[in-house]
Design goal:
Distance between the termini: 25 Å
Radius of gyration: 15 Å
Oligomer: single chain
Largest sheet: 5 strands, antiparallel
Number of helices: 1
Strand order of the largest sheet: 1-2-3-4-5
């Protein structure tokens, strides 16, 4: 009997500045406990010229009530996020 490993995809809708809505697949949502900042890593399942799936990282801002995805501009934050991405990619290959 062949077993198929099916993982349910987590989807979310994002609304761009021009008002268009797009469905994206959530790869990981996490929070850094020390600064209480939330992040989401997601994909539109696009591939680059090397065949790699493009992923996006956003800071989740909940201050306005409705969650908003914001860019990450701080270099120290980026370094920590890259560490998370490296760990994620290690898990995928083990």
């Amino acid at each position: 009997m062949e077993m198929e490993n099916q993982v349910e995809k987590r989807m979310m809708s994002i609304v761009s500045d021009d008002g268009t809505t797009e469905e994206v697949e959530v790869i990981l949502a996490f929070e850094f406990k020390d600064n209480k900042k939330e992040y989401v890593i997601y994909t539109k399942n696009e591939k680059d010229e090397n065949g790699n799936v493009t992923v996006y990282v956003s800071n989740v801002d909940r201050e306005s009530g409705e969650p908003r995805l914001m860019g990450v501009e701080d270099e120290a934050e980026w370094a920590r996020i890259k560490d998370v991405l490296r760990e994620l990619s290690k898990d995928d290959y083990q």
